[in-house]
Write a structure and sequence with these properties.
alpha+beta, Ribosomal Protein L22, Chain A, four-stranded antiparallel β-sheet, two-stranded antiparallel ribbon, 5 helices, 34% helix, 28% strand
Length: 148
């Protein structure tokens, strides 16, 4: 969690998933109905190989749960990840939360990864400030020799 003297609160969550977990899961598994909404199921099944899309969506849900742990404590069931007309993921949080949630998803041939950011709503409109705080956070995380 990143806080400043004005009470700005940003939390980050990440997750990585092996795509084969979804390739090896039976299509009729009850897991899908427990974890994914009808819209998420339709999106993923809209691809010839839905496994990478299920894995990325699942990783996104897990990253959101981690990012909201200290704020509004989302659960897999309250997180829905939809795509806009350009394919960018958007988080719908089906519970009360005073944070805006942003997510980035990606996958390779073997893994899907997600990063979620929970930003207090009073600061969400100041994206430049958020970018600056993310840079400060990266500098705190990376070894000094890797920071430019």
């Amino acid at each position: 969690m990143l806080n400043d003297d004005r009470g700005l609160n940003i939390t980050i969550g990440t997750d990585i998933v092996e795509i084969d977990r979804f390739r090896n899961l039976e299509a009729e598994s009850p897991f899908y109905g427990r974890v994914f909404s009808e819209r998420e199921l339709a999106y993923c099944h809209g691809y010839p190989d839905p496994a990478p899309h299920f894995a990325a969506t699942f990783a996104g849900k897990e990253a959101v749960v981690k990012a909201t742990d200290s704020n509004c404590r989302a659960t897999i069931g309250t997180v829905e990840i939809l795509r806009d007309e350009n394919g960018a993921p958007n988080v719908m949080l089906h519970q009360s939360c005073n944070h805006d949630i942003y997510v980035s998803l990606s996958h390779s041939s073997s893994h899907a990864v997600a990063v979620a950011l929970a930003v207090h709503q009073s600061y969400s409109s100041d994206l430049n400030e958020i970018q600056g705080l993310l840079e400060i956070t990266v500098k705190r995380i990376l070894p000094r020799s890797e920071v430019s």
